[in-house]
Amino acid sequence: MTRNCPQNDGVGSLTLPAGTLQLDRPRLMGVVSTLDAPLERQLKVADALIADGADLIDVGGASVAVLALVEQLRRSNPAMPISVDAHDPVLARRALEAGASLINDPLGGRDVAAIVGEHRAGLVVGFVRERIDQAIASGVAPSSIVVDAGTAGPGRALDAVLALGHPVLLGRHVDADPEPLPRLLAAVAAVGVRPGVIHRVDDVRAVRDFLAVFAVLEGYDDISVDLELPVELRRARSETEVIRDA
């Protein structure tokens, strides 16, 4: 017997140029930094994140170095939403023309918002009502705005951010040091399976698997009747039992 997932009124999807991203469950944004890494390495990281189940890719670096990666990803994964850090209007325009569908500018530049609106793309803004209003006034569709909860301050409850009526982005900044996995999973558990949330993470597979187990334990999902323990885990379990019984 399953129960219904928590609901967030008015935060059911995110409109992007390539289509609509449904947010009826938490979505995962995989992080790729263009700092101090060759393009080949960046592509390998991005491909691995996509294979692990990323719903979006976030390209960091806030420089023209992001453009080559965006172009390559758009060619190899045309349906994958790509987010780019861009506080400069020129970089924002070039990133969108290269294939980005979401611009991350929590500082809320008016010129950047106007360019995003012109391309009918998505925009990540800071937790300030005036920045959201400014983005809408600049031509960004309300359904294409994401609020970065990291700018809300440590004491701000998630409910207060969701109450603004836009999807919420949680997790470290793309160019910050990666979080230790236990702390990351603890933060994910605190949010649970609430809709309207995008987690920006380095380890997509770990968070995806954690959320799947969380949903079952909390009664939101059933365990598939076809579920089988992988052979390698069965072998590891068997070896552990032999050692324990010796």
Write a brief structural summary.
The chain has 9 helices and 10 strands. It has helices at 39-51, 65-76, 89-98, 110-118, 129-137, 158-162, 181-191, 204-217, 231-245; strands spanning 13-16, 19-22, 27-33, 56-60, 82-85, 102-104, 122-126, 145-148, 168-171, 197-201.
Q: Your description of this structure?
A:
This protein is an alpha/beta fold and 246 residues long. The protein has one domain: TIM Barrel (Alpha-Beta Barrel). It has helices at 39-51, 65-76, 89-98, 110-118, 129-137, 158-162, 181-191, 204-217, 231-245, and strands spanning 13-16, 19-22, 27-33, 56-60, 82-85, 102-104, 122-126, 145-148, 168-171, 197-201. The strands form two sheets. It has an eight-stranded parallel beta barrel with strand order 3-4-5-6-7-8-9-10, surrounded by six helices. Helix 4 links the parallel strand 6 (102-104) and strand 7. Helix 1 crosses helix 2 (65-76), helix 3 (89-98) packs parallel to helix 4 (110-118) and helix 7 packs across helix 8. The longest helix has 15 residues, at 231-245. The N and C termini lie far apart (40 Å).
**CATH topology-level name:** TIM Barrel
Mean pLDDT comes to: 84
**CATH superfamily label:** Dihydropteroate synthase-like
Distance between the termini: 40 Å
How many E-type strands? 10
Order of helices and strands: EEEHEHEHEHEHEHEHEHH
Unreliable stretches, pLDDT < 50, 5 or more residues? Answer: 237-244
The overall number of domains is 1
Radius of gyration (Å): 19 Å
Shape-level CATH architecture: Alpha-Beta Barrel
Shape: globular
CATH domain class name: Alpha Beta
Major sheet: order of its strands? 3-4-5-6-7-8-9-10
Strand content: 15-25%
Tally of helical segments: 9
User: Residue share in helices?
Assistant: 25-40%
Structural class: alpha/beta
The biggest sheet, with number of strands, parallel, antiparallel or mixed sense and barrel status, is: 8 strands, parallel, barrel
